[in-house]
Specification:
By secondary structure, this protein is α/β, with parallel strands linked by helices. It contains 23 helices and 18 strands. It has 3 domains: about 260 residues, 3-Layer(aba) Sandwich (Rossmann fold); about 60 residues, no CATH class; about 220 residues, LmbE-like (Rossmann fold). Helix content is about 40%, strand content about 15%. The chain is globular.
Length: about 625
Amino acid sequence: MSDRSHAEAYEKVHTSIFPSSAEAAKALAAEIRDLILEREKSGKPVVLGMATGSTPVPFYRELIRLHEQEKLSFKNVITFNLDEYYGLNADHPESYACFMREQLFDHIDIPAENINIPCGSLPREQVFAHCREYEEKIDAVGGIDLQILGIGRTGHIGFNEPGSSRESLTRRITLDRITRQDAAADFRGEENVPRFAITMGVGTILRARKLVLMAWGENKAAITAKAIEGPVTEAISASFLQDHPDARFFIDTGAARELTRIKLPWLVGPVSWTPRETRRAVVWQSLQIKRPVLKLIDEDYNEHGLSDLLSEQGPGYQLNIRIFNQLQHTITGWPGGKPEEEDTYRPERAKPYPKRSLIFSPEPQDAIVGMGGTIDRLIEQGHDVWVISMTSGSLRVPDSEAYKFASTLAELAGNLSNPAAWTTQTTYAREALRQLDEKGEFGEDTPMLRQLKGLILRGELRDAAHALNVLRQQIVFLNLPYYEHGRYRRFKATPADAEMLKKLLQEKKPHQIYATGDAADPSSVAGIGYKLLEQVLSDLRGEEWASACTLWLYRGKEKPFEPHEIDMAVPMSPLQLDRKLRALSRYGSLTSLEKSTADINRATAGHYDALGLAEYEAIESFQRRTRQPQ
Ligand code: F6R
């Protein structure tokens, strides 16, 4: 764990960076255990403020472990949850009440009467009184000892969206568009996400004696840095933590990425100038002052806090040339290696050719979003390309898609010349339509509906992959069981998942693997998929093919790589970008983030251009995870 030391000038609230969310969760849970044990002696209760969402999941798992293995009792604990969707009752699978039962309360010995969660199903006219009573209840037990928080991409804590005042109390609020987009997968489409919620106010939260805000993954990096280093503002309610006497941020390395001490470490203290750090500094400087790498002069280095680098690795012009060459060598139109060519300075080795490339897509759309153009190139260059859809993705398919499919099937079967021969299909279609009606807009999908939705996504992936010339038989649908038995934010991988991946890898013995999710929230589909893959690859590292296999990381819906992080940049012509977009248009349920992939690819090309390299239409970028053998 790294604590701030030189970073104080930038970080206005105490921030601890942990190597992983699991380690941060362990540290926080140990602190809570100590508090519970201490209070037990004096017979006083501990009052905890709870959060929901993906962030606290590893922390709740650790509390459950402490209860089960170390016999930690929660009899003496009182809890208050931050918020609840308005319009859902406590039995709704996406209600926070249900989440808390599943993730924590059903697994520990906390008395039911000690649990407090705002009620989301009261009539409008009773909400105000309910909120006031919630505040009074908190005060009546002596206030919250320690409040757990997550942070939304809008910077909200609880559901205090931008504009919430420092004095705000528990109330009904309207959810921000970004917050609703982020919850879209949970509710199978943005249009199904509740518009309102009841939340503790910023003022309620700040009354807690201690506050700990947790954040994981790169998607939280930008907002986390603003909350920690930016001004205190109503536009980012998490920034109010800066004014609290005992507030701390517990974040992982992904979420820490935009902090000055990580992003621009030379502004904070002495830096050990590794090749990656050197590249970061030169690239940052060039983009910052909008001057191509080869035109940087010594004064630029001195004026941007890089005199140290200059004296260690200068003169400036030599350094410029070195970094320029490194960047130049990341660009290749041959992601599978260029056969028969000298490959010392190419990102991928020339031999063997062709290569067997396995492209892992956590959900059926991720690989096309992240690397559709590169798939196109690999196929064109004769490689043996396999697209592996790790999960069915069925949870993201809106009911409207299932309706469309089932009603078309019903109509088709009924209109054929020999309807009697189609009774199975008719019965299936009618049953699917019945189940859709029965469960209603917010209801949980039955196994049959999940299967139908999974099949719809399969069709879409086949169709999208076809637009890139991937043959049907080269697409593998793994349907990892953890996904089929879970819900978003609450998945738990099992040994069966690892076993399926292992079998596939041993059978295919790939030369290249493309994967994503290393920087994702660890309980997201991509995060779980990546962890499983990493674990299986490590189990198999003794096998000959595995030690020679290159693992390339791509970015699906996560934050794209920055130019200094890229080891392979695959350019796309305007025509290739069109082909990728055509492939993406085959999906019926892309999020707005996924739809913006062309802009992301164009922005990466723009960076290369600004650094003084060639000007391409668009670029897909990759990072090498394992070094290829020399
Ligand atoms: C949840 C809550 C929210 C979440 C935030 C992050 O009770 O109050 O502020 O903490 O939206 O959500 P996740 O953890 O799902 O990224």
